């Protein structure tokens, strides 16, 4: 049975300050490194046969801390581009324009200069489907937005129904036994050090 194992990067320095990152190339925080190390035994036990990841530092550093010596870095797995919102406080955006923020989380609003949700879903899903076709146990190390995009495209779960994914958390999709190519959710937002229910985007 094919399995798709998806990990969000550990907490970054901007996550710690609750700033939107988008495609800004921000380092992991010390806490984020610890989160990734804590998840490593779980990933080793799952024994992925291939790993692809975003080419941004916070992601490929997470992959290395998970024990993946040579992940395949893909620009297509970068986070959604948030345009003019890059580096802005999430709380500030929510306060000043709550409808825009809710719409962005739901995939219906694009920040000025940002990436359209449907385009983002298409680029990330295309990359993962290509890699999954050549793997039985694919590990994807990526961003919270990428995970929401994959849950929408692969199992039909809309982003407005998904909480922000916790840092260094694991989500698993498995192929339905009776329906090749169709996926189902096996695990969501798992962290060995406990769930993060108020994770920043």
What would a concise description of this structure say?
The chain is an alpha/beta fold and 201 residues long. The chain is built from seven helices and six strands.
Query: Helix count?
Result: 7
Q: Structural class of the secondary structure composition?
A: alpha/beta
* Strand coverage percent: 15-25%
- As for the CATH topology of the domain at 10-134, it is Rossmann fold
Helix content: 25-40%
Q: Compute the gyration radius: what is it? A: 16 Å
Oligomeric state of the chains in view: single chain
Largest beta-sheet characterization: 6 strands, mixed
Q: Residue-averaged pLDDT, rounded? A: 96
Q: Under the CATH scheme, which architecture of the domain at 10-134 would be assigned?
A: 3-Layer(aba) Sandwich
The level-1 CATH class of the domain at 10-134: Alpha Beta
Q: Which shape, going by the Cα principal axes? A: globular
- Looking at CATH, the homologous superfamily of the domain at 10-134 is Phosphoglycerate mutase-like
What order do the strands of the largest sheet run in, or round the barrel if closed? 3-2-4-1-5-6
Order of helices and strands: EHHEHEHHHEHEE
N-to-C terminal Cα separation, in Å? 31 Å
Give start-end ranges of low-pLDDT stretches: none
> Count the strands?
6
